[in-house]
Amino acid sequence: MPTQTPTQGERNRAARGDQTLMSAVGRAREALHGVAAPGAVGGHTQAYPVAERLVTHVFECLLPGYVGWQWEVTVARAPRSKRVTVCETHLVPGDGALLSPEWVPWAERVRPEDLGAGQGGTVEEPQLVLVAAQNLSQGTAERQSELIPAVCECCDTHGFIVPVEIRQEEKAGVTRREPDPLPPPLVDDYEIELVDPAELRAEEAVPESSESDSTAGETSSDDPAEQAQPEAETGEAAEGAR
User: Fold this and answer.
1) For the segment 48-73, what is each residue's pLDDT rounded down to a tens digit?
2) Who has greater pLDDT, 56 or 242?
3) Cα 71–Cα 72–Cα 73 angle in degrees, nearest 5
4) In a domain, 186, yes or no
5) I need a surface site. Which of 68, 193, 208, 237 has the fewest CB within 10 A?
6) How many domains does the chain contain in total?
7) What is the full DSSP assignment across 147-177?
8) Burial (0-12, 13-18, 19+ Cβ within 10 Å), 49
9) pLDDT score, position 158
10) In a domain, 202, yes or no
11) How many CA atoms lie within 13 A of 232 on its CB side?
């Protein structure tokens, strides 16, 4: 659908601004009362036409921390109507407004003036290097100490390969520093000795056999039959004496 070209009169009226809308300062301020905090709207600074029957009013912003910012309220009216309608309200930065610095990626935040003499630029982390699993097998610590510097060009010291899972069908590893030594053993203040139950049963099996032999000899002397025989001999001797 072709757009109708505005006439010269319409362009002149748009440049001058709609007098009804240009004078609607109070209506624009009322629209900010429901948006801005109490005391955040300052004086009216200007009003400029945006298009035919479309005007924007600008107010000073008094919010703490918003130096140079300003409130803008855009109003309009229908043809042959004196009723002012609020289109939108927003807070925008003006000339000399206090703005946050432009976002810079983390990798680019170190500037030349931040580096001292002898300091390089962006380098890779030497402590964390991905190593292909087929290039470095997991062997002994001595064998890995020989292989890691040959595979990892940025490894200054010998490290230990640690397996990590990247995908289900792929495996890799990372080199890291030597693990810290294990903590010393705990000291037992009560001097409790831990004994293997199997050893304890083996030690108890030997005394039981010797004790059974000794007790067997003792019980033989205490047999009632043997004790009765001397009593019988004593009775026969007594009869002979008679």
Assistant:
1) 999 989 999 999 999 998 999 999 99
2) 56
3) 125
4) no
5) 193
6) 2
7) HHHHH-TT--S--EEEEEESSSS-EEEEEEP
8) middle
9) 45
10) no
11) 6
Domain of residue 135 covers 130-176
d(CA 167, CA 171): 7
User: 102 and 132 in contact (C-beta within 8 Å)?
Assistant: no
Q: DSSP characters for the chain?
A: -PPPPPPHHHHHHHHH--HHHHT-HHHHHHHHHTTSPTT-EEEEEEEEEEETTEEEEEEEE--TT-TTEEEEEEEE--TT----EEEEEEEEE-TT---PPPP--GGG---GGG--TT--SS---TT--EEETTTS----HHHHHHHHHHH-TT--S--EEEEEESSSS-EEEEEEPPPPPPPPPPP-TT-PPP--HHHHHHHHHHHHHHHHHHHHHHHHHT-HHHHHHHHHHHHHHHHHH-
49 is a domain residue:
yes
For 124-182, write each residue's pLDDT tens digit: 555 455 555 444 444 444 444 444 454 455 555 545 555 555 544 455 555 555 556 65
User: In 3D, which of 173, 180, 123 has the Cα closest to residue 151?
Assistant: 173
* Type of residue numbered 96: G
**Is the domain of 80 the same as that of 139?**
no
Determine the pLDDT at residue 3: 44
Q: How many residues does the chain have?
A: 242
pLDDT band at 225 (very low <50, low <70, confident <90, very high): low
